[in-house]
Amino acid sequence: MFCIQCEQTTNTPEMHGCAFRGNCGKTPETSDLQDVLVAMLESLAARALTAEAEGIDISKTALFVPRAFFSTLTNVNFDPIRITAYIHEAEAMRDELAAAGAKRPDHPLADFSVKGLCASALPAACREASLRREEPNADIAGLRLLALYGLKGTAAYLEHAAALDLRDAKLERRVLEHLARIGSPEAGAEALLADALEIGHLNLDVMAALEKANTTSFGDPFPAQVNTAPVKGKCILVSGHDLRDLKLILEQTEGKGINVYTNGELLPAHAYPELRKYPHLVGNYGSAWYKQQTEFAEFPGPIVMTTNCILDPNPGHYADRIYTRNMVGWPGCTHLDTDDFSVVIEKALEMPGFAADEPKRTVTTGFGRAVLEGAADTVLKLVGEKTLRHVFLVGGCDGARSSRSYYADFVEQVPADCLILTLACGKYRFNQKALGHVGGLPRLLDVGQCNDAYAAVRLAVLLAEKAGCGVNDLPLTLVLSWFEQKAIAILLTLLALGVKGMYIGPTLPAFLTPNLVKTLVDAYDLHVVSTPEADLKAILG
Ligand code: SF4
Ligand code: SF3
């Protein structure tokens, strides 16, 4: 196995990347199978493009590819059986397109096949498929991985939109085009960097589509005070990012005496009119993904994992009551393939639930695009009056490294005349802090999930338009925490938009070589986080 796609990868002088077992818990078998799957998806994408040129309908393929690709993101699918099924489905789909008359594409993986290989031989096929091992130039390899990982994140966001029935053939084709091009042996460094930035632009368009899918399905989010204390009674916990699954569970539990809680990235669900209207959506339980093994172990009901991030449920002994959905998988856990959640409901009724109410406590969420755009004039007025000095976006993923305490310390130390926007699961480090108000606005505004990064980008662009300047001229600094590939996609979007002076941490992606880091630092004034004191001093002067 070789995997270097996330922030917790092994990165020591002796070893660069996870080579024996993932620090996430991914086995060599699953890792190799995921490499095979990515290769097969590249091959399928190339064939789908020739099929489309022949006028053959590729909508089934265009729906399948992002979903299967999503299964290879960090902390999504650890189940070799499910990954193997995706590989065979992809090859069968490619054969179908060929049988329908799609020409053989000019692609290095055009004839890549795993037919006839027994399950134990399958992972070895990844030697043929591996992108990185074939590339002696580390900068070129790093750029390919930057594009590949960014595209994984974009594919995940496209799948989120498709789950809500928002399909866009042009966006789907752009994903297929990039995927078919990623392994291209002849592309040089400049072309690969341009490709990565183009993926950033594509990701912006995909995130706009996702925002439309979310708001069309559930209404515009508006601020909500969300209970975070357990409520007496039977319960189901819903984690991940998938709002549709949460809605289905709320519908199917209505009148059954079961309380539904969100976890992790589903906290912002409480802000959507079509979700918050359910009285049995009683609150948010727990925090970010890396605490699952203790928080889930203590939850007295079943848990539904709709998308990333899942951790090994065995140490906490809750594998028998965790249910995976969509592209998520853990070996031995029950996977729900249909929209019928009866088995989860039965489990909730069997289990004790919470014995008593705990004293009420809340966090606030729901500063989505419409709310932020509505506040743009106020923000500019406050800046003009010098009531508001600076706006920070402190957002992104969380993770287990102790150095991530930087983000909570940073927020704590931001001066009182500054505003802080946040999004994604990294906010659990500080979202319960009482930070007060500035100029009548709450100082801490939770924009939503990582999936909602579009809202923050829109606010920045709108502020710049209204102020008649560029985004880089605004009193705005982005302080990002990355962990997995959705964050890489968002980073590429920000770079593609020309956003400069960002701070990123807790470490830089290990797949970027010193040369590539220098290129990004020179072109975008990118900083690695240091200490909150030093960084705040540098930003605020
Ligand atoms: Fe290692 Fe991250 Fe890959 Fe898991 S996803 S194997 S931790 S690099
Ligand atoms: Fe978190 Fe996995 Fe990235 Fe959606 S849930 S931000 S890490």
What's a quick, concise take on this entry?
By secondary structure, this protein is α/β, with parallel strands linked by helices. The chain is 43% helix and 12% strand.
Q: Alpha-carbon distance between the termini? A: 46 Å
Radius of gyration: 23 Å
pLDDT average, as an integer?
A: 95
Number of structurally distinct domains: 3
What structural class should be given to the helix and strand makeup? alpha/beta
Strand percent estimate: 5-15%
- Described by the principal axes of the CA atoms, the overall outline is globular
The helix fraction, in percent, is 40-55%
Strand order of the largest sheet: 4-3-2-5-6-7
Main sheet: strands, sense, barrel = 6 strands, parallel
Binding site for hybrid [4Fe-2O-2S] cluster: 241, 265, 309, 397, 425, 450, 484, 486
Subcellular location: Cytoplasm
InterPro entries: HCP/CODH, Hydroxylam_reduct, Prismane-like_a/b-sand, Prismane-like_sf, Prismane_a-bundle
Protein name: Hydroxylamine reductase
